[in-house]
């Protein structure tokens, strides 16, 4: 049962949207959204306005949704990339609601469509910082991400991503001491295998193609987990779950040339994703994780 489709939050949503628009908003239709959603979600229609709403019922949902709202605003104000307008974050006793502007999604099909998406991600990555990390933790799905500021990428990726994600897998009972020792050996080698960097890109954090929407004109970023870091890790996520047209990467590379050796490093950046999968699904993804780790040690 999707708690957004039975009407229990209708008045709350109507009040929040009316306050945002300055006009009365009355719900006329609710359509459940299941595609790529980790939370109950729905597209809610009004007389002349539509919103996308998702509900969180976990103990960390208020912090998670507040962070997501802030991230969407941050991307929109610090880059040329479009994000949905945040209507409201509403906290109720049994749930927290994130209410966003609904985006009219267009499926990318033409060469121009894919080029605009690739150019959009490149535009985001043009926003830079001289340190890795971010002002506060963000969430990648259910995982809280440590974004403590670091001066170098090997330090950040090793401590705030690989070691932190490995601890989650260990706490879930899904990694052995021997496997952890191999990951630690990789972390120790990162300074010698990571390319030197003096500036770091604003990253989407979870830019698989389902989180890179297209409105017919430009990329619209959603479900972000932002921080400043090595843009190659974003690039390896784009087609992590499903294939993407090569036109996307060609357009990205033309807008912001990818550093030599990226193909050889791509599996290195996937290790953090595999650690998350091992935390959730145990041995199902253990082979992919350890193959990637052993490739670099």
Describe this structure in words.
By secondary structure, this protein is of the alpha+beta class. 44% of the residues lie in helices and 17% in strands. It is built from 9 helices and 12 strands. The strands form 4 sheets. The chain has a 5-stranded antiparallel beta sheet, with helices on both faces. Strands 6-9-12 form a 3-stranded antiparallel beta sheet, with helices on one face. A two-stranded antiparallel sheet has the order 7-8. Helix 4 (153-171) runs antiparallel to helix 5 and helix 8 runs antiparallel to helix 9 (286-296). The longest helix has 20 residues, at 262-281.
Which features would summarize this protein structure in a list?
globular, Phosphorylase Kinase, domain 1, 9 helices, Aminoglycoside 3'-phosphotransferase, Chain: A, domain 2, 297 residues, 5-stranded antiparallel sheet
Summarize the structure.
With 297 residues, the protein is α+β, with helices and mostly antiparallel strands.
**Strand percentage:** 15-25%
CATH hierarchy, class of the largest domain: Alpha Beta
The biggest beta sheet is recorded as:
5 strands, antiparallel
In DSSP terms (H or I, runs of 4 or more residues), the helix count works out at: 9
Tell me how many strands there are.
Answer: 12
Strand order of the largest sheet: 1-2-3-5-4
């Amino acid at each position: 049962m999707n708690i957004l489709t039975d009407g229990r939050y209708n008045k709350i949503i109507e009040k929040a949207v009316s306050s945002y628009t300055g006009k009365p908003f009355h719900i006329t239709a609710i359509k459940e959204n299941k595609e790529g959603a980790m939370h109950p979600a729905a597209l809610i229609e009004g007389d002349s306005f539509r919103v996308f709403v998702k509900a969180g019922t976990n103990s960390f949902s208020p912090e998670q949704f507040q962070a997501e709202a802030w991230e969407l605003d941050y991307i929109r104000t610090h880059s040329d990339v479009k994000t949905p307008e945040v209507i409201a974050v509403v906290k109720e006793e049994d749930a927290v609601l994130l209410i966003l502007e609904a985006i009219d999604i267009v499926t990318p099909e033409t060469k121009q469509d894919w080029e605009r998406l690739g150019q959009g991600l490149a535009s985001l990555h043009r926003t830079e910082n001289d340190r890795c990390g971010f002002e506060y933790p963000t969430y990648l799905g259910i995982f809280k991400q440590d974004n403590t500021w670091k001066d170098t990428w090997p330090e950040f990726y090793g401590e705030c991503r690989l070691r932190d994600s490995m601890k989650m897998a260990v706490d879930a009972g899904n990694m052995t001491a021997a496997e952890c020792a191999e990951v630690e050996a990789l972390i120790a080698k990162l300074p010698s295998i990571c390319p030197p960097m003096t500036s770091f890109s604003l990253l989407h954090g979870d830019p698989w193609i389902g989180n890179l929407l297209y409105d017919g004109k430009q990329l619209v970023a959603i479900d972000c987990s932002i921080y400043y870091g090595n843009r190659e890790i974003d690039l390896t996520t784009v087609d992590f779950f499903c294939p993407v047209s090569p036109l996307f990467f060609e357009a990205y590379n033309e807008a912001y040339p990818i550093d030599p050796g990226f193909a050889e490093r791509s599996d290195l950046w996937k290790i953090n994703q595999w650690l998350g999968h091992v935390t959730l699904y145990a041995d199902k993804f253990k082979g992919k994780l350890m193959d990637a780790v052993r490739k670099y040690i």
